[in-house]
Write a structure and sequence with these properties.
- The complex is a heterodimer of chains A (156) and B (643).
- The mean pLDDT of chain A is 95.
- In chain A, strands 2-1-5-3-4 form a 5-stranded mixed beta sheet, with helices on both faces.
- With 156 residues, chain A is an alpha+beta fold.
- The N and C termini of chain B lie far apart (58 Å).
- Chain B is α+β, with helices and mostly antiparallel strands.
- In chain B, strand 6 and strand 7 form a beta hairpin.
- Chain B has a 7-stranded mixed beta sheet with strand order 6-7-4-14-11-12-13, with helices on both faces. A 5-stranded mixed beta sheet of chain B has the order 9-17-16-15-10, with helices on both faces. A 4-stranded mixed beta sheet of chain B has the order 18-19-20-21.
- At the A-B interface, helix 1, helix 3, helix 4, helix 5 and helix 6 of A face helix 5 and helix 16 of B.
Chain lengths: 156, 643
């Protein structure tokens, strides 16, 4: 066991873990950031997506040792002073979820996608989001939400 | 309208609190006292109590709408407590699309009564009254909230990650549990060495009969310890494909007519033999479908603790009162000493009926005297939950010279009886569901056997249309029984441009759980790969209580159904499921999703049927019909295009 200083949602947080412990487990169990979900444990469903240095990564395959001092953004850190991020607003606007379990990962992926490509075509959205599974099948609405966010596109 | 809200607010009070009356009632029946259904707080906030559970199907929002509508208060003033057996009445399990037909009327009645009683008597007196049935609920032409696209009341918690699912709960001093799994189904534990596991500090190993589990203060320690348990199992060989379908027929039990059940297993009219004799053309074919997995995004999890009140379990469950009963029986305690708190589910699709993970958490918690949480891995979810039944369906039919179906013999082995009958006007039929022995553990799935039966029936009808030399739409319109099903077919056909496009297309229709529907799909084939490009679905379940959410459900059901239609299949050998991971079991993704247009036929005057399940039934046969148009080949086994 070692102590690590993590930079999560703009705050420095100390955790105690093995260097190869999955970031997902540390976020959920030690930091109580349960908005990041376990879905498959092998990086193929996207439910555990967080942003590391602004890029979407699978928290289930990322180890604590890799991330020390690098900025991590989880779904809990996206809202600023009670104001939702435009992507969060767009998901609400398009009702782009049913059970909501995959939504945090979808939203963070969309945030990263729009930073890299502020005006994506539908094919870009499908391709960019392909690593995420929504078992409720709300894909058309998620595509619509990302499109809406890109139109509003302030911070996107 | 505004008066109503003001009346309610003027008569603010706190109702009962600790002395809350909760009475178990029959499924769908109203609890006797208003106080067991609604609370009204001093600030005017109204709390609805219901045994129904939110699974993503939208019933939290729908029931909120019902209360707001009948009490004439804003949606934001209503809160819904669901699935906590210590606080809510038993509304029956959340399955079979029953919330809309059974719970919506009960809740509307209670809310309308509350409004009426609060106007006419003292609050404490009102809440102790039985819910009067003569109180009128609002009529559709007055609706301001029902029938409108109210947004998901969980929305903000969902997009901020605040909504708590079963694996998100914590309890002071909580430990983590892991179960040591056998290397085969139906295995018996014959020997087990736990010394290495017990050497890890803080670990508790629990062995009870066929169960071995471990609990530890951290999940890592629990995982390590579980991996160190040396267990020997004696397994039974599973009957696997291709022998599976023969096995179903060999072990089949002939059905007996029974109409005191939701899905009668035997339906007969006229004489199939006479009908076949009279027929000008005859046809027979066999359809099969494999076991598939529900794959809820949230693998099941539960947190259990024992204290002076008995056992409390928090987790995902579609049937909180049923699971409470099972827990009480398993631990031989009185039901009153078991509390089940059902969390909002990260989807279920019929897969979260059972008590599996709750029993495990409760067993470990009892053995180590601590709160214990067990959260299944994705692999456990695939291998140790139950699956959608596999089945084989034999159909024999006869056609009159004018294209009417005269005879229909339909035999389903193992799949189930939902949607067993055909929505066609057939003078002679026999539809039978034969129970059979299933090697894999099987259970409910979204729409039950309606996927299987609709697949076989609609494929067969498409084949009959070919045999009659007729267009599949015209053939259906000639044979369909109900005007509403016909209208769904006509409207979807028109929007789709049936017969006008150059791309290959197929269609299917259904009448299931009182919803009428027709689906048209356009496909593209590249080699063995089949892609649905565009879907038009017309759907009529009576009044659309929340039209946008209803569309969301229909779109989602079509996409989920696409997986079972094209590529989903649990593969297993003589011991185990072999593709129990999301890397190996393919489910629909963004690239699979077609453009979907939903036509809602909103009949305000018709009492609504539930719609969370039935729209999953029509995509598979429509795809099979479209594939036939491309290849000339009738694919009669699901999945239609396995990888």
């Amino acid at each position: 066991m070692s102590r690590f200083r993590l930079n999560v949602n703009g705050r420095v947080r100390e955790v105690e873990a093995e260097a190869d412990a999955p970031l997902l487990r540390v976020l959920r169990d030690q930091l109580d950031l349960t908005g990041t979900k376990y879905g498959c444990g092998e990086g193929v469903c996207g439910a555990c997506t967080v942003l590391l240095d602004g890029r979407a990564v699978h928290a289930c395959l990322t180890t604590v040792g890799e991330v020390k001092n690098r900025p991590i953004l989880t779904i809990e850190g996206l809202e600023q002073n009670g104001r939702l991020h435009p992507v969060q607003e767009a998901f609400l606007e398009a009702s782009a979820f049913q059970c909501g379990f995959c939504t945090p990962g979808m939203i963070l992926e969309a945030v990263a996608l729009l930073r890299a490509n502020p005006k994506p075509a539908e094919q870009d959205i499908r391709r960019g989001m392909e690593g995420h599974i929504c078992r409720c099948g709300t894909y058309p609405r998620i595509i619509e939400a990302v499109r809406l966010a890109s139109k509003g596109g302030r911070r996107g | 309208m505004a008066d109503g809200a003001q009346t309610t607010r003027r008569q603010l009070f706190e109702v009962l609190g600790a002395g809350l009356l909760v009475q178990p009632v029959l499924e769908g029946a109203a609890p006797a006292k208003l106080a067991s259904r609604l609370h009204i707080a001093p600030d005017g906030a109204v709390t609805l109590l219901t045994g129904k559970v939110e699974l993503g199907q939208g019933c939290r929002t729908l029931l909120t709408q019902c209360v707001a509508e009948e009490m004439r208060i804003p949606v934001t003033q209503v809160r819904v407590v669901m699935g906590d057996t210590a606080r809510v009445p038993d509304d029956g399990g959340t399955f079979a699309s029953l919330t809309t037909p059974l719970t919506v009327p009960v809740v509307r009645q209670a809310a309308a009564a509350a409004r009426e009683l609060l106007r006419t008597m003292k609050p404490d007196e009102a809440m102790l009254r039985e819910i009067p049935v003569e109180v009128k609920i609002s009529s559709p032409d007055q609706w301001r909230i029902l029938g409108t696209p109210v947004k998901n009341v969980n929305g903000r918690d969902i997009v901020t990650g605040r909504l708590k699912y079963s694996a998100d709960g914590k309890h002071p001093g909580m430990w983590y549990g892991k179960v040591v799994r056998p290397d085969a189904y139906h295995a018996e534990l014959i020997d087990c060495d736990v010394t290495a596991a017990e050497r890890i500090p803080g670990v508790k190993v629990v062995r009870e009969a066929n169960f071995i589990g471990v609990a530890a203060p951290t999940e890592e320690a629990a995982e390590k310890a579980a991996a160190l348990v040396r267990a020997k199992w004696r397994g039974k060989e599973l009957i696997s494909p291709p022998a599976l379908f023969e096995h179903f027929k060999k072990t089949a039990v002939a059905p007996v007519a029974n109409f005191n059940t939701r899905y009668p297993p035997l339906l007969e009219k006229g004489s199939v033999e006479a009908g076949l004799k009279e027929s000008e053309k005859k046809h027979s074919a066999v359809y099969t479908l494999p076991y598939i997995a529900h794959v809820p995004m949230e693998p099941r999890a539960a947190l259990a603790w024992w204290d002076e009140n008995g056992l409390t379990v928090q987790g995902a469950s579609q049937v909180p009162f049923g699971v409470r009963k099972q827990l009480a029986a398993a631990f031989q305690v009185d039901e009153s000493r078991v509390r089940l708190i059902a969390c909002d589910c990260g989807s279920a699709f019929g897969g979260k009926h059972g008590p599996e993970v709750m029993l495990e958490a409760a067993r470990l918690a009892r053995a180590c005297g601590k709160p214990v949480r067990v959260a299944w891995t994705r692999e456990e979810e695939f291998v140790w939950s139950y699956c959608r039944p596999a089945g084989i369906i034999e159909v024999q039919s006869g056609l009159a010279g004018d294209g009417r179906i005269l005879a229909w013999d339909f035999r389903n082995y193992n799949s189930g009886a939902a949607s067993l009958s055909a929505p066609y006007a057939i003078p002679n039929y026999r539809c039978a569901y034969y129970r059979a022995d299933s090697p894999l553990r099987q259970g409910p799935y979204r729409s039950l056997a309606a996927v299987a039966n609709t697949f076989a029936r609609e494929c067969h009808v498409d084949e009959l249309a070919s045999l009659a030399g007729e267009d599949p739409v015209a053939f259906r319109l000639r044979n369909l029984e109900h005007a509403r099903t016909k209208e769904a077919v006509e409207r979807a056909a028109e929007r789709f441009g049936w017969g006008k496009g150059s791309r290959p297309a197929g269609m299917a229709c259904n009448l299931e759980k009182n919803a009428h529907m027709a689906l048209f799909v356009e496909i593209e084939m590249r080699g063995a790969e089949v892609r649905a490009r565009r879907v038009v679905m017309a759907f009529d379940c009576g009044a659309a209580l929340n039209p946008d959410h209803l569309k969301n459900e229909i779109e989602g059901a079509i996409i989920m159904g696409l997986g079972g239609a094209l590529f989903e299949e649990l593969r297993y050998d003589s011991r185990h499921v072999r593709n129990g991971s999301l890397g190996r079991y393919r489910v629909p993704r963004f690239s699979d999703a077609p453009a979907i247009e939903v036509i809602l036929i909103d009949r305000r005057e018709v009492t609504p049927a539930g719609a969370g399940e039935s729209p999953i039934t029509v995509i598979a046969p429509a795809l099979a019909a479209a594939i036939y148009r491309v290849t000339g080949e009738r694919r009669r086994s699901l999945p239609l295009a396995p990888a």
